[in-house]
Design brief:
The protein is mostly beta strands. Helix content is 10%, strand content 44%. It has two helices and eight strands; from the N terminus they run E-E-H-E-E-E-E-H-E-E.
Amino acid sequence: MTTDTYSFRNTYAFESITVGVTAKQLTAATFENSQEALITVASNIVRWRTDGTDPTSGVGHVMTTDQSILIKGGTDISRFRVISQTGADAILSISYYK
């Protein structure tokens, strides 16, 4: 039996965002000074990018329900953009670490 464990520096913030047909970014006041962001798709399918360009429903990395990514570095966190691939609202859960 395996157990997934996460070992991070100080967890200091959390947010949940709803993503629709317009590209969205993370909340700057929430992630300020963070070094890592753990992003999990709670529902639906999304596309994301970290180059500061908005993804579209056909362009960007795909994440489906229950998948997570760990974004490292304040620059990539601030440039993270996400959109729903299907057009239906998606929910993301994000934990921030220093």
